[in-house]
Amino acid sequence: MPIEALALVLVAACIHATWNYWVKRAQVSGVSLVWASSTVTAVLYAPIALWFFGAQLLQFGPAQWLAVVASGVLHTGYFLSLQRGYAAADLSVVYPVARGTGPLLASIAAIIWFGEPPTPGSLAGLALIVSGTFTIAGGWALFRRIGTERARRGLAWGALIGVFIATYTINDARAVKLLAVAPLLFDWLAGLLRAIFLLPLALRQRVALRRDLVSSWRYMFGVGVLAPLGYILVLTAMQIAPVSRVAPAREVSMLLAAFLGARMLGEGGLRRRLIGAALIAGGVVSLTVW
User: Distance (Å, rounded) from C-alpha 166 to C-alpha 230?
Assistant: First the structure.
């Protein structure tokens, strides 16, 4: 993987872990947070997207618009599932399971769909990253706790979020790699669609929305700024590096998430999380070097 792509992925990973931590801290309804943050994205990023890439809209055909609509739908499902999952279970279970399942499925799909040839280094890196996320989530002890309702909820929500991650990763990578849509323009349009899709739901829950805005507007604003920024960096990395390498390399964010979940959210298990983080770091090195 080119060093430029790795740098973009590393910065994006720090951004991703930060805004996921804010989502967990917000403790608001999924509709409120996703609609408010998507509206912030649509408003703040509009001048930049239209000024630099507005002319590209005139060249859009059915394939580009279909990719944009699909991204809007998939990311809406992802954000709502993320918020519901964090409300139902620990960040340290939902986040690792999601971030392990998603890249694994996305890498397999990229190898098949985009014809990206796997190498021993890329396969080893993927295995290390999946092992690291599994370790952070609790290792074999996670399955020994499977009888608890909270653990089952965490696994189920994490798996669902992982499917959303894999699906939108392939759709969005196709848009920026094969259809040549600018990452900033593409993500802004998808964010605008999310805001539009969720507006009826937000209006039906206006009392809860007003309460959530008063209590957590800073988190909503922060997510609206950081979430698209991190993903735009990832899309840019996908333009210059194989998707099957970029997707798992994003999981370096687990290093930061492991610390946040254990120390700042009081979810414990710091030693286990550090071992998992080391496995993930080794996987990223393998993806980059070999």
Answer: 17
d(CA 131, CA 277): 10
Taking the chain (290 residues) in runs of 10, the rounded mean pLDDT of each run is: 85 84 73 88 95 92 96 88 77 73 82 80 79 70 62 80 91 94 96 92 87 86 93 93 81 66 57 75 71
**Tokens, residue 235:** 């899309």
Instruction: Tell me the C-alpha distance between 169 and 276, whole Å.
Output: 24
Q: Which pLDDT belongs to residue 73?
A: 93
78 neighbors 140 (Cβ within 8 angstroms): no
d(CA 8, CA 2): 10
**Radius of gyration of the chain measured on its C-alpha atoms:** 18
| E-only strand ranges, the chain | none
**How far is the C-alpha of 29 from the C-alpha of 206, rounded, in Å?**
11
Its pTM stands at: 0.83
* Residue listed under structure tokens 């694994």: 104
Q: In this structure, what are the phi and psi dihedrals at residue 130, rounded to the nearest 5 degrees?
A: -65, -40
Q: What is the pLDDT of residue 263?
A: 57
**In sequence order, what are the residues at sequence separation of 6 or more whose Cβ sits closer than 8 angstroms to the Cβ of residue 172?**
67, 71, 186, 187, 190, 235, 238
